[in-house]
Amino acid sequence: MVPPPCTPQRAERLLRVQGRLLLGLAALLMVNGPLLTRTGLLPWTVPGPPAPETLLDPGATPRAVQPAAALGTEEERTIAAFERARPAVVGISSVDLATFRRGGRLVPVEIPEGTGSGFVWDTGGWIVTNWHVVANATMVRVSLADGGIREGVLVGAVPEQDLAVIKIDPAGLDLTAIPLGDSEGLRVGQSVLAIGNPFGLEASLSKGVVSGLQRVIDLETDVRIRGVIQTDAAINPGNSGGVLLDLAGRLVGVNTAIRSRTGFSAGVGFAVPAERVNELVPRILAGEFPVAAGRALIGILMLPDELVRARGLAGVGIEELVPGGGAERAGLRGLDPEDEEALDLIVAVDDEEVTTQEGLRSLLSQYRPGDSVQVRVQRADETLEVEVVLGGSRER
What we know:
Low-confidence stretches: none
Strand order of the largest sheet: 1-2-3-6-5-4
Order of helices and strands: HHEEEHEEEEEEEEEHEEHEHEEHEEE
CATH architecture of the domain at 295-393: Roll
CATH superfamily of the domain at 295-393: PDZ domain
Distance between the termini: 100 Å
CATH topology of the domain at 295-393: Pdz3 Domain
CATH class of the domain at 295-393: Mainly Beta
C-alpha cells in the first residue's frame, strides 16, 4: 500500500501529535521518576534533599556591628521636634460607664466608644481636640504622655471648625503646652510631622510634606471646613485631634480628616490651620462657644443606703471608685474586700449634710462638671476634708 502524500496540513498534524506525546512523557517522568529510579527502571538517580544536620555551622558567631552613620541634619531636626512636642500630645477616649457584680460588689467597667488624639494648650489643664472625637462621648478620658489618666470635661466647641476643648484637673501634673507656630507661612513641599494615636498606638510619628493649601473638606458630620492644610503624612483613625508640626516642633495644624476610599491613610490628610486654632480656643475658654457638659459626678459607685443604715451609719458609702475620677484623685477609698469595715462615708459636700444617695445626687445637680467641692468623709474614727474636682456624664 502506498502511503498518502505528506501534505503541509498532514505534517502539521503529525507534529502536534508528537508534541503532545513528548509532553505526556515528560509529565510521567516528573511524577514517577523517583519511583522508577528506586525500582531500577531508570538508569540514573535523583538526589534527595540534604539532611538538615549537614547544613548547620557549629562554629557560628554573632556578626560584627557596623558603626552607625551620623544622622543627617533633617533627621536630627525631626527627632528634636518629636521630643519637644511629645509631652504635650495626649490620647482621647470617649467611654461609657457600665457596672457588673463581682463577688457581690458593683465594679465599674469603661466601655470604649472611640479614640482620638489631642494636645495640651496650656498648663491650666486645657486640652484641644477635634469636635468629632468627643461629640457623642458620654464620658471622656485623657491619657497623658507620662502614662497618667485623667477624667476630662468638655467645656466648649466650634463644630463648624471641628474644634473642641476639654478640661482636666491639673493638680499634681507637670503639663507641657504645645509650642505654637505660624501656618500662614507654610509652603507646598515643606516637611511636616504628624503625632497622634492611630489605632490606639500612642505617640506615633509620621512624616510628609505640605501637599496643598486652602483646601475645602466635607466631614461626616455634615460640616464643610475651608482653608485647611493638605498633607501626605500618614493620618489614620485615632490621629484625629493630634498635632501637625513643622520641623521646629511648632504646631501648624490640628489633624482632622483623611480622604480615602478605605477609611485608612491614602496619602491625603487634612489639618485645621494653627492660626484658626489660636483664634478660636481663647474664645472657647472665655465661654463664647459652650456645650452641654452633662451632669456633675463625684466619681464613685455608691453603696446601697440600706446597707449603710444596717451598719448604724448615716451618709453615702463608697463601694467603688471610677478610674481617673475626682474621688480617686482626692484619695478616697472604695470598699476593701478583705476589710469591709474600712468604709469611706461621704457625710457632707460644701458643708451641706448628706445622708442618702438621692440627697447626694440632688446636691450635685447644683454644680457643673469641672467645679471643685469640699467633701467631708468619715473614715472609721477619722474625719477628712478633701477637695474633689467633679467629672461629668453627658446624655447622648
